[in-house]
Amino acid sequence: MIAQQHKSLLRFLTCGSVDDGKSTLIGRLLHDTRQIYEDQLSSLHNDSKRHGTQGEKLDLALLVDGLQAEREQGITIDVAYRYFSTEKRKFIIADTPGHEQYTRNMATGASTCELAILLIDARKGVLDQTRRHSFISTLLGIKHLVVAINKMDLVDYSERRSPVFVKII
């Protein structure tokens, strides 16, 4: 317990436009680092059958999209925070909404963060909301920005698309 208290804490958020994969990225991170309890995993299997958007697969976005309206609409509305730790560090992740009408919620989630992961859908590229989230992150003093191009499998892992996004941002 004492060792846990002395670990440094990193607060970060996922941001970007709607459907860029923010909630799924967090769900994948939690799943792959075994931060999900058995009862949560069982519940996730059931929820994926009822509300999932991945067919028969596990819908990892549902780990953070907990509001009924979020599950019914398949979107993030409010900021969802998840905590996890490793041997060396503690983390608090803020999953923020990508829809324009919920930009205020994104700013709330970003307000305490030190790092932002800005997701870009490889098919859609940099959108107005992508730029807006980048600007808000900078405005709030977030000095560390990771640009992650997501869904590369849907463009056959075409590397020539990547530099275009970085130049636009």
From TrEMBL:
Domain Tr-type G: 7-169
Enzyme Commission number(s) from the entry: 2.7.7.4
Keywords: ATP-binding, GTP-binding, Nucleotide-binding, Nucleotidyltransferase, Transferase
Gene Ontology MF terms in the entry: ATP binding; GTP binding; GTPase activity; sulfate adenylyltransferase (ATP) activity
InterPro entries linked to this entry: CysN_GTP-bd (IPR041757), G_TR_CS (IPR031157), P-loop_NTPase (IPR027417), Small_GTP-bd (IPR005225), T_Tr_GTP-bd_dom (IPR000795), TRAFAC_GTPase_members (IPR050100)
Family: Belongs to the TRAFAC class translation factor GTPase superfamily. Classic translation factor GTPase family. CysN/NodQ subfamily.
Listed name of the protein: sulfate adenylyltransferase
Organism: Escherichia coli
Lineage: Bacteria, Pseudomonadati, Pseudomonadota, Gammaproteobacteria, Enterobacterales
